[in-house]
Amino acid sequence: MKIEQNHNLSKLNTFGITAKAKFFVEVKNEEDLKDLFNSVEFKNNEKLFLGGGSNILFTKDFDGIVILNKLKGIEILRENNEEVLLKAMGGELWNDFVNFAVINNYWGVENLSLIPGSVGATPVQNIGAYGVEVKDIIENVEAYDINTGEKSIFNNKECEFGYRDSVFKNKLKGKYFISAVIFKLSKIPNLNISYKVLKDYLNKNKIQIKNVKDISDVVAEIRRSKLPNPKILGNAGSFFKNVYITENELENFLEKYPQMSYFKEEEHVKIPAGWLIEKCGWKGKRVGNVGVHDKQALVLVNYGGASGEEVKNVAEQIIASVFEKFGLKLALEVNIV
Ligand SMILES: Cc1cc2nc3c(=O)[nH]c(=O)nc-3n(C[C@H](O)[C@H](O)[C@H](O)COP(=O)(O)OP(=O)(O)OC[C@H]3O[C@@H](n4cnc5c(N)ncnc54)[C@H](O)[C@@H]3O)c2cc1C
């Protein structure tokens, strides 16, 4: 383990924002972690755990220690004819884990194909796409207490998962380093095509799903057609969370905006934040080096050379205009540092 100083983070965040870390270290195994916890640089500085940097916006240099998770490995812990329990180390790429499951015909992760980032970050914001959230398949999360260096196991309930939310974003924010995640997947076909966009795509293209790979391929194809590739255009996926309102509020909104897009979900109604942003005239708009993606208004992009502050300013302007027009306050999905 080598602790570096003044490390450039521009290639370590998908926005491609230039920022530096006062200290920087890669952890490749649990020995590295122990050494790290005993180091002065770790003990005396603010800490930031980093995976793929695909859900983060640096607005300044980080005056502390950035720990890049490179813990690797996927193993089967238990299996029977119906289910398999898999442990994936936190530094594995999420999509490599998805591909591992797909190749082995394990069901459960396929709707989450092609989401960038690391396995270790998936519980933090409870990643979700196409009608599935990672909480649906997480059994346990293994994490180190950064103050004591002790490893704890959090079961699904203890993770307090919510919509793009978990205990690791709230009361335990910054307090634990997630080293591994244990997933329960199904060996029995378990198709989930309830999500409208997915269902419509399958119907329109007359696609018959035969196996788990088919669904993973379709999800990947839809994603490629809609979302900008961060390798080409810096971004961090959805910058804002969707908005949830009550059924009563929905009636009032529909009187004013009969064309409003909405989805009824159990107790609440989801209003796509992308729709609200689009209706405020932001879709495809560019402000300096920052833009709102022309295919998905939820995504802010860096056309090159944007600073984190510039991106944040545009985000604030969007929040203000959505609030002014609809009286709804958009919340951020991306972590601002
Ligand atoms: C093109 C694109 C599409 C996307 N699509 C989706 C999508 O469909 N659904 C979705 O939910 N998200 C999506 N995202 C967001 C992002 O991919 C996910 O949030 C992903 O899980 C972030 O992983 P990461 O490793 O890059 O996390 P990072 O950005 O490195 O970190 C995110 C946060 O988690 C913390 N963290 C990271 N690793 C650890 C750890 N080991 N222990 C403790 N804390 C940690 C960080 O400190 C930070 O606060 C998308 C992003 C992009 C760029």
Set out the fold topology:
Elements: E1 4-8, E2 20-27, H1 30-38, H2 40-43, E3 46-50, E4 56-57, E5 62-69, E6 74-79, E7 83-89, H3 94-103, H4 122-125, E8 128-129, E9 132-133, E10 138-145, E11 151-155, E12 176-186, H5 196-204, H6 212-226, E13 234-238, E14 243-245, H7 247-256, E15 263-265, E16 268-271, H8 273-279, E17 286-287, E18 290-292, E19 299-302, H9 308-326, E20 335-336
Parallel strand pairs: 2-5, 3-5, 4-20
Antiparallel strand pairs: 1-2, 6-7, 7-12, 8-9, 10-11, 10-12, 13-19, 14-16, 15-16, 17-18, 18-19
This protein binds flavin-adenine dinucleotide.
Flavin-adenine dinucleotide binds at residues 14, 48-56, 69, 90, 115-118, 120-122, 124-125, 127-129, 168, 177-178, 227, 230, 235-237, 335.
Architecture overview:
The protein is an alpha+beta fold and 337 residues long. Helices cover 26% and strands 28% of the residues. It contains nine helices and 20 strands. It has a five-stranded antiparallel β-sheet with strand order 6-7-12-10-11, with no helix packed on it. It has a four-stranded mixed β-sheet with strand order 1-2-5-3. The protein has a four-stranded antiparallel β-sheet with strand order 13-19-18-17, covered by helices on one side. The chain is globular and about 60 Å long. Bound molecules: flavin-adenine dinucleotide. Flavin-adenine dinucleotide binds next to β3, α4, β8, β12 and β13. The site of flavin-adenine dinucleotide has 33 residues, from β3, α4, β8, β12 and β13.
Number of strands: 20
Calculate the mean pLDDT score and round it: 95
Oligomer: single chain
**Number of H/I helices:** 9
Radius of gyration: 20 Å
**Content-based structural category:** alpha+beta
Output the strand order for the largest sheet.
6-7-12-10-11
Based on Cα principal axes, name the global outline.
globular
* Gap from first CA to last CA: 25 Å
Name the hetero compounds present. Answer: flavin-adenine dinucleotide
In terms of DSSP E residues, the strand content is 25-35%
Q: Which segments are poorly predicted (pLDDT under 50) over 5 or more consecutive residues?
A: none
For the largest beta-sheet, the strand count, sense and barrel status come to: 5 strands, antiparallel
Give the helix proportion (percent range): 25-40%
Order of helices and strands: EEHHEEEEEHHEEEEEHHEEHEEHEEEHE
